[in-house]
Specification:
With 189 residues, this protein is mostly helical. It is built from six helices and three strands, in the order αααααββαβ. The chain has a three-stranded mixed β-sheet, with helices on one face.
């Protein structure tokens, strides 16, 4: 769907318009605009809530497939999250957002109190061209912005667990005469 405004761009656009109104100095216009945004959000939120309720009423019916299709759509899913209507918990939504990243990452922990999500890059057998740390963090933040707004900070940990250990092999100790590879084993005295 080209030309469709995604939730993040729409949010930025609303903020820009409200900021322009605030810069005008007309307090009454700012308050009216804020109220208009709230009323429209409540209206659309109520409509979305009713849609989710109707689609999820009987899980065995074909409507359950329609609800799954709606949840798989980033725009619809982000609207459901915005209105607190998404049926999946934060952990499930975080996992879904991370699945779409260009580089695989492992969720090592989310702290709901601080909004911090800790990630670790997953080393693959590929060329190792997963991108810079900044690019991985930015793509994670972008993916999480609409599906898991609870995440306010992304921290990319070092991938120390995935690094191979270097095994150093030195020369074998000198053998005494008759200690060849096929010599009989000696018993301790």
């Amino acid at each position: 769907m080209s030309g469709v405004l995604d939730a993040e761009r729409a949010g930025r656009r609303v903020e820009e318009i409200l900021d322009r109104l605030a810069a005008s100095g007309d307090r009454a216009a700012c308050e009216a605009a804020d109220e208009l945004v709230r009323v429209l959000m409540e209206f659309y939120g109520a409509g979305l809530a009713r849609t989710v309720e109707l689609l999820g009423r009987e899980p065995g019916r074909p409507a359950a497939g329609a609800l799954d299709a709606l949840l798989a759509d980033d725009l619809v899913a982000s609207l459901l999250v915005l209105h607190g209507l998404h049926p999946h918990d934060a952990a499930t939504r975080i996992a879904r957002a991370l699945e779409g990243l260009p580089q695989s990452v492992e969720n090592t922990g989310f702290d709901p109190a601080t909004g911090e999500l800790r990630l670790r890059p997953v080393v693959s057998g590929g060329c190792g061209c997963g991108g810079s740390r900044d690019a991985v963090e930015e793509s994670a933040r972008d993916a999480l912005a609409c599906l898991a707004p609870e995440v306010t900070k992304v921290v990319l940990e070092d991938d120390t667990a995935g690094e191979p250990v270097l095994l150093q092999i030195g020369a074998a100790p000198p053998r005494a005469a008759g200690d060849g590879p096929h010599a009989p084993a000696r018993t301790p005295r």
